[in-house]
Amino acid sequence: MGVAVVTGAGGSLGHAIAQRLAHDGQRLAITDVAEHTLKETVDALGGDVFARVVDLRDADALAAFFTDARREVGPVTALVNNAAIYPTVPFLEMELADYESVHAVNQRGYWLCAQLAGRQMVEAGTDEDRSIVNIASITMHGGWEKLAAYVTTKGGAVALTRALARELGPRGIRVNAVSPGAFKTAAEEIYDDPEAYSAMVVERQALKRRGTPAELAAVVSFLTGPDAAFVTGQTLEVNGGWVMA
Ligand SMILES: NC(=O)c1ccc[n+]([C@@H]2O[C@H](COP(=O)([O-])OP(=O)(O)OC[C@H]3O[C@@H](n4cnc5c(N)ncnc54)[C@H](O)[C@@H]3O)[C@@H](O)[C@H]2O)c1
Predict the structure, then answer these.
(1) Range of the domain at 165
(2) Number of folded domains in the chain?
(3) Average pLDDT over every residue of 75-97
(4) Band of the pLDDT at 188, cuts 50, 70, 90?
Protein backbone atom coordinates (compact mmCIF):
# COMPACT_ATOMS: atom_id res chain seq x y z
CA MET A 1 0.00 0.00 0.00
CA GLY A 2 1.11 3.54 -0.70
CA VAL A 3 0.25 7.07 0.34
CA ALA A 4 -3.31 8.38 0.11
CA VAL A 5 -4.28 12.05 0.19
CA VAL A 6 -7.83 12.79 1.34
CA THR A 7 -9.15 16.34 1.08
CA GLY A 8 -11.96 17.47 3.33
CA ALA A 9 -10.86 14.76 5.76
CA GLY A 10 -12.47 16.59 8.67
CA GLY A 11 -15.92 16.31 7.07
CA SER A 12 -18.48 13.55 7.53
CA LEU A 13 -17.57 11.41 4.52
CA GLY A 14 -13.89 12.46 4.46
CA HIS A 15 -13.47 11.28 8.05
CA ALA A 16 -14.91 7.86 7.17
CA ILE A 17 -12.82 7.63 3.99
CA ALA A 18 -9.60 8.47 5.85
CA GLN A 19 -10.40 5.87 8.51
CA ARG A 20 -11.14 3.20 5.92
CA LEU A 21 -8.00 3.87 3.86
CA ALA A 22 -5.88 3.79 7.02
CA HIS A 23 -7.53 0.46 7.86
CA ASP A 24 -6.58 -0.73 4.36
CA GLY A 25 -2.93 -0.03 5.21
CA GLN A 26 -2.47 3.25 3.33
CA ARG A 27 -0.21 5.91 4.82
CA LEU A 28 -2.27 9.07 4.95
CA ALA A 29 -1.79 12.74 4.16
CA ILE A 30 -4.99 14.58 4.99
CA THR A 31 -6.19 18.13 4.78
CA ASP A 32 -9.17 20.33 5.54
CA VAL A 33 -9.83 24.03 5.98
CA ALA A 34 -11.47 23.39 9.37
CA GLU A 35 -8.82 22.86 12.03
CA HIS A 36 -11.01 21.35 14.77
CA THR A 37 -12.62 18.66 12.61
CA LEU A 38 -9.30 17.83 10.94
CA LYS A 39 -7.90 17.27 14.43
CA GLU A 40 -10.80 14.94 15.25
CA THR A 41 -9.85 12.81 12.25
CA VAL A 42 -6.17 12.88 13.22
CA ASP A 43 -7.12 11.75 16.73
CA ALA A 44 -9.38 8.98 15.35
CA LEU A 45 -6.42 7.76 13.29
CA GLY A 46 -4.22 7.63 16.38
CA GLY A 47 -2.13 10.61 15.24
CA ASP A 48 -0.02 8.61 12.78
CA VAL A 49 -0.82 10.80 9.77
CA PHE A 50 0.48 13.86 7.94
CA ALA A 51 -2.20 16.52 8.39
CA ARG A 52 -2.37 20.21 7.56
CA VAL A 53 -5.03 22.88 7.49
CA VAL A 54 -5.22 24.11 3.88
CA ASP A 55 -7.81 26.16 2.03
CA LEU A 56 -8.21 24.50 -1.37
CA ARG A 57 -8.66 27.95 -2.89
CA ASP A 58 -5.02 28.74 -2.04
CA ALA A 59 -2.98 27.15 -4.84
CA ASP A 60 0.39 27.91 -3.21
CA ALA A 61 -0.63 26.41 0.14
CA LEU A 62 -1.94 23.35 -1.68
CA ALA A 63 1.31 22.90 -3.60
CA ALA A 64 3.27 23.22 -0.35
CA PHE A 65 1.02 20.58 1.26
CA PHE A 66 1.76 18.08 -1.51
CA THR A 67 5.51 18.85 -1.45
CA ASP A 68 5.70 18.45 2.32
CA ALA A 69 3.51 15.33 2.31
CA ARG A 70 5.88 13.77 -0.19
CA ARG A 71 8.83 14.53 2.05
CA GLU A 72 7.09 13.24 5.20
CA VAL A 73 5.26 10.12 3.94
CA GLY A 74 6.39 9.57 0.34
CA PRO A 75 4.97 10.16 -3.14
CA VAL A 76 1.20 10.14 -3.39
CA THR A 77 -0.27 6.99 -4.91
CA ALA A 78 -3.95 7.67 -4.20
CA LEU A 79 -5.95 10.89 -4.14
CA VAL A 80 -9.51 11.28 -2.94
CA ASN A 81 -10.88 14.64 -4.07
CA ASN A 82 -13.61 14.98 -1.47
CA ALA A 83 -13.71 18.52 0.00
CA ALA A 84 -16.62 20.56 -1.29
CA ILE A 85 -19.01 23.32 -0.33
CA TYR A 86 -22.72 23.29 -1.07
CA PRO A 87 -24.45 26.61 -0.29
CA THR A 88 -28.18 26.41 -0.99
CA VAL A 89 -29.15 29.67 -2.64
CA PRO A 90 -31.94 30.33 -5.15
CA PHE A 91 -30.34 30.64 -8.59
CA LEU A 92 -31.80 34.08 -9.29
CA GLU A 93 -30.40 35.44 -6.01
CA MET A 94 -26.92 33.92 -5.96
CA GLU A 95 -24.06 36.42 -5.98
CA LEU A 96 -21.28 35.89 -8.51
CA ALA A 97 -18.70 35.79 -5.71
CA ASP A 98 -20.54 32.84 -4.09
CA TYR A 99 -20.71 31.00 -7.41
CA GLU A 100 -16.98 31.58 -7.88
CA SER A 101 -16.25 30.31 -4.40
CA VAL A 102 -18.12 27.05 -5.05
CA HIS A 103 -16.16 26.57 -8.27
CA ALA A 104 -12.85 27.50 -6.61
CA VAL A 105 -13.25 24.69 -4.06
CA ASN A 106 -15.21 21.99 -5.87
CA GLN A 107 -13.88 22.37 -9.40
CA ARG A 108 -10.56 24.23 -9.44
CA GLY A 109 -9.62 22.54 -6.15
CA TYR A 110 -10.22 19.06 -7.60
CA TRP A 111 -8.26 20.01 -10.74
CA LEU A 112 -5.29 21.37 -8.78
CA CYS A 113 -5.12 18.39 -6.42
CA ALA A 114 -5.34 15.95 -9.34
CA GLN A 115 -2.46 17.72 -11.07
CA LEU A 116 -0.26 17.91 -7.95
CA ALA A 117 -1.00 14.28 -7.05
CA GLY A 118 -0.72 13.12 -10.66
CA ARG A 119 2.82 14.47 -10.95
CA GLN A 120 3.85 12.52 -7.84
CA MET A 121 2.08 9.40 -9.14
CA VAL A 122 4.14 9.51 -12.32
CA GLU A 123 7.23 9.81 -10.14
CA ALA A 124 6.08 6.89 -7.93
CA GLY A 125 6.45 4.62 -10.97
CA THR A 126 4.48 1.73 -12.36
CA ASP A 127 5.29 -0.73 -9.57
CA GLU A 128 2.72 1.07 -7.41
CA ASP A 129 -1.06 0.97 -7.98
CA ARG A 130 -2.01 4.62 -8.46
CA SER A 131 -5.45 6.13 -8.69
CA ILE A 132 -7.59 9.21 -8.24
CA VAL A 133 -11.16 9.14 -6.94
CA ASN A 134 -13.30 12.25 -7.44
CA ILE A 135 -16.36 12.52 -5.22
CA ALA A 136 -19.33 13.66 -7.30
CA SER A 137 -22.98 13.76 -6.18
CA ILE A 138 -26.40 12.34 -6.97
CA THR A 139 -27.53 15.96 -7.40
CA MET A 140 -25.88 16.10 -10.83
CA HIS A 141 -28.68 13.83 -12.09
CA GLY A 142 -32.14 15.19 -12.67
CA GLY A 143 -31.68 18.68 -11.27
CA TRP A 144 -31.76 20.00 -7.71
CA GLU A 145 -33.24 23.27 -6.50
CA LYS A 146 -31.01 25.99 -5.02
CA LEU A 147 -27.82 24.05 -5.80
CA ALA A 148 -27.13 25.18 -9.37
CA ALA A 149 -23.53 26.23 -8.68
CA TYR A 150 -22.80 23.02 -6.78
CA VAL A 151 -24.34 20.65 -9.34
CA THR A 152 -22.26 22.12 -12.16
CA THR A 153 -19.10 21.31 -10.19
CA LYS A 154 -20.31 17.76 -9.59
CA GLY A 155 -21.05 17.20 -13.27
CA GLY A 156 -17.61 18.71 -13.81
CA ALA A 157 -16.07 16.16 -11.45
CA VAL A 158 -17.36 13.35 -13.67
CA ALA A 159 -16.14 15.08 -16.84
CA LEU A 160 -12.73 15.63 -15.21
CA THR A 161 -12.69 11.96 -14.22
CA ARG A 162 -13.20 10.83 -17.81
CA ALA A 163 -10.68 13.30 -19.27
CA LEU A 164 -7.98 12.33 -16.76
CA ALA A 165 -8.71 8.61 -17.08
CA ARG A 166 -8.09 8.95 -20.81
CA GLU A 167 -4.94 11.05 -20.42
CA LEU A 168 -3.33 9.30 -17.44
CA GLY A 169 -4.37 5.75 -18.32
CA PRO A 170 -1.35 5.17 -20.58
CA ARG A 171 0.82 5.92 -17.53
CA GLY A 172 -1.05 3.30 -15.51
CA ILE A 173 -2.95 5.82 -13.38
CA ARG A 174 -6.64 5.06 -12.89
CA VAL A 175 -9.22 7.81 -12.38
CA ASN A 176 -12.77 7.14 -11.21
CA ALA A 177 -15.62 8.97 -9.56
CA VAL A 178 -17.97 8.02 -6.74
CA SER A 179 -21.37 9.67 -6.79
CA PRO A 180 -22.92 9.50 -3.32
CA GLY A 181 -26.65 9.59 -2.75
CA ALA A 182 -27.91 11.19 0.43
CA PHE A 183 -25.87 9.83 3.29
CA LYS A 184 -26.79 10.53 6.87
CA THR A 185 -24.30 13.27 7.69
CA ALA A 186 -24.11 16.73 9.18
CA ALA A 187 -24.60 18.10 5.65
CA GLU A 188 -28.37 17.66 5.83
CA GLU A 189 -28.62 20.23 8.59
CA ILE A 190 -28.93 22.65 5.66
CA TYR A 191 -32.50 21.45 5.19
CA ASP A 192 -35.34 23.14 7.09
CA ASP A 193 -36.79 19.84 8.32
CA PRO A 194 -34.06 17.14 8.45
CA GLU A 195 -36.52 14.40 9.53
CA ALA A 196 -38.83 15.02 6.59
CA TYR A 197 -35.77 15.08 4.34
CA SER A 198 -34.63 11.74 5.73
CA ALA A 199 -38.07 10.19 5.13
CA MET A 200 -38.07 11.55 1.56
CA VAL A 201 -34.65 9.98 0.91
CA VAL A 202 -35.72 6.54 2.14
CA GLU A 203 -38.94 6.74 0.16
CA ARG A 204 -37.01 7.36 -3.08
CA GLN A 205 -34.35 4.70 -2.55
CA ALA A 206 -34.86 1.04 -3.49
CA LEU A 207 -33.17 0.15 -0.18
CA LYS A 208 -35.39 1.39 2.66
CA ARG A 209 -32.75 2.74 5.04
CA ARG A 210 -30.16 5.51 5.17
CA GLY A 211 -26.64 4.80 3.93
CA THR A 212 -23.73 5.25 6.32
CA PRO A 213 -20.44 7.08 5.63
CA ALA A 214 -18.61 3.77 6.17
CA GLU A 215 -20.57 2.25 3.26
CA LEU A 216 -19.48 5.10 1.00
CA ALA A 217 -15.89 4.78 2.22
CA ALA A 218 -15.93 1.06 1.35
CA VAL A 219 -16.52 1.92 -2.31
CA VAL A 220 -13.66 4.45 -2.28
CA SER A 221 -11.52 1.72 -0.74
CA PHE A 222 -12.45 -0.65 -3.58
CA LEU A 223 -11.64 1.92 -6.27
CA THR A 224 -8.27 2.83 -4.73
CA GLY A 225 -7.37 -0.80 -4.15
CA PRO A 226 -5.99 -3.66 -6.23
CA ASP A 227 -9.42 -5.27 -6.85
CA ALA A 228 -10.24 -2.29 -9.11
CA ALA A 229 -7.01 -2.62 -11.09
CA PHE A 230 -8.88 -2.69 -14.44
CA VAL A 231 -11.48 -0.04 -13.58
CA THR A 232 -10.96 3.48 -14.89
CA GLY A 233 -13.04 6.38 -16.19
CA GLN A 234 -16.13 5.11 -14.33
CA THR A 235 -18.59 6.70 -11.96
CA LEU A 236 -19.97 4.45 -9.26
CA GLU A 237 -23.39 5.51 -8.00
CA VAL A 238 -23.67 4.75 -4.28
CA ASN A 239 -27.20 5.75 -3.39
CA GLY A 240 -29.24 2.77 -2.21
CA GLY A 241 -30.89 2.55 -5.63
CA TRP A 242 -32.29 6.09 -5.80
CA VAL A 243 -30.88 7.02 -9.20
CA MET A 244 -29.90 4.05 -11.36
CA ALA A 245 -27.40 5.22 -13.97
N1 LIG B 1 -23.18 13.79 2.56
C2 LIG B 1 -23.81 13.37 1.47
O3 LIG B 1 -24.82 12.70 1.55
C4 LIG B 1 -23.25 13.70 0.11
C5 LIG B 1 -24.07 13.49 -1.00
C6 LIG B 1 -23.57 13.73 -2.26
C7 LIG B 1 -22.26 14.17 -2.40
N8 LIG B 1 -21.49 14.40 -1.31
C9 LIG B 1 -20.12 14.85 -1.52
O10 LIG B 1 -19.26 14.18 -0.63
C11 LIG B 1 -18.17 15.02 -0.27
C12 LIG B 1 -18.10 15.14 1.23
O13 LIG B 1 -19.32 15.66 1.71
P14 LIG B 1 -19.70 15.66 3.26
O15 LIG B 1 -21.11 15.32 3.37
O16 LIG B 1 -18.72 14.87 4.04
O17 LIG B 1 -19.56 17.23 3.56
P18 LIG B 1 -18.85 17.96 4.79
O19 LIG B 1 -19.28 19.38 4.73
O20 LIG B 1 -19.10 17.20 6.05
O21 LIG B 1 -17.32 17.84 4.41
C22 LIG B 1 -16.70 18.67 3.47
C23 LIG B 1 -15.36 19.08 4.03
O24 LIG B 1 -14.71 19.94 3.09
C25 LIG B 1 -14.08 20.96 3.83
N26 LIG B 1 -13.88 22.16 3.03
C27 LIG B 1 -14.83 23.07 2.68
N28 LIG B 1 -14.27 24.09 2.04
C29 LIG B 1 -12.94 23.83 1.97
C30 LIG B 1 -11.84 24.55 1.45
N31 LIG B 1 -11.98 25.75 0.88
N32 LIG B 1 -10.61 24.00 1.55
C33 LIG B 1 -10.45 22.80 2.15
N34 LIG B 1 -11.46 22.08 2.69
C35 LIG B 1 -12.69 22.60 2.59
C36 LIG B 1 -15.01 21.24 5.00
O37 LIG B 1 -14.33 21.90 6.07
C38 LIG B 1 -15.50 19.86 5.34
O39 LIG B 1 -14.73 19.26 6.37
C40 LIG B 1 -18.40 16.34 -0.99
O41 LIG B 1 -17.69 16.33 -2.20
C42 LIG B 1 -19.88 16.32 -1.26
O43 LIG B 1 -20.21 17.10 -2.39
C44 LIG B 1 -21.97 14.19 -0.05
Answers:
(1) 3-238
(2) 1
(3) 97
(4) confident
